[in-house]
Design goal:
Elements: H1 31-36, H2 42-63, H3 67-76, H4 79-93, H5 95-119, H6 124-131, H7 157-181, H8 184-207, H9 213-230, H10 240-263, H11 270-278, H12 291-311, H13 320-338, H14 347-382
Amino acid sequence: MNKVCPFSPSVLETRNYSVDPSSSCSRGISRRREAREWVVPLGKMETVYVQGVWLTEALQKRVMDYERFWLFVTHMSDPKAAFLLCFPMAHCFSRRTGIAVLWVAAVSEWLNLLFKWVLFGERPFWWIGESGLFMKNPPQIQQFPYTCETGPGDPSGHSMVTSAVWWVLTSTLASFLYSYTRSTLLTFVPYLLYLTVLVGVGISRVFILAHFPHQVITGTLTGIVIGVVLNRRVPQWRPLSFFVYVSMGLLLGALLFYTLLQHCGVNLSWSIALAKKWCSNPKWIRLDTTPFSSLARDCGAILGLGLSQYWKPGGWNLPRAPRALCLALSAMALYHFNRILLPTSPPLLFYCLFFIRYTLVPQIVIVFMPGLVHLLTDKKKKD
């Protein structure tokens, strides 16, 4: 695997981001940092970032032998895994849980987008070079194919969506075990697994240089709260109009918020430029990691959830064996469906096709594959 450490002194650009107390604005502060100065005092955040960089260096030195494992963990905790993997698995065993997983994944990722636009979180792989604080003593750290995400870093989307979605799965499994065993001790096993998953995801995100430790902690805690709140009210029997309004509301709300911030002079594309500048391999920059890709996925999934319940309100009543077959077919279909390359130019066309892709995901899992399995098994019974 090609790994590069792009933070040698020869490629660093010198920048002085210190603030002179006697002046209103230091000469070295960039316009981007001026726009963010009202969020958190610069000196305090630089201290947090510097400590995070040295912690990442120590982490990479200790666990570099398990590089493939951590890359696998960060890949499986990508927000899209909640839509393409967790959702079909949950729906196979419980229709209500499947709908809850998709609902929580979409809403939590949408909220994560808004939080990132407001908090202006740096990512370590670009902040190290931009800060100019490591000229004399550059950290010995590496980038990976999953490092170069283009959105702001705070809070961590992987940690936030994973903690929200896995709370739904964990609480459901714990309730199931307790109903069958009446063992309180056994009920704690899913929560122990849940904690292990969250710690693993957090370590993987810090290890690959995609997030600072405090961003992972913020995302994890926020995701737990969202998962607990949203899992109590799942839109299982809502009409199609509800999902249309929610989908369009999330889309228009995010666009309106984006326009408002732009009108106030905040450049929300600052992170994309920095990601392209400091990523050691241009091929690692992907359009599906941009904030608007997340927005298209969330709105499309919610609309698709409404359409799937509109076409088949009660779902298909399948026995256990056909449901397992349905899960296998859904997984295969989603795997190949997600591998279809979408044109990246113009970007608007990509986002529209991305929206359509995730609108079809609930149709495949809830309507198409179960309907096909029902047709095959029903025909076999008649024969």
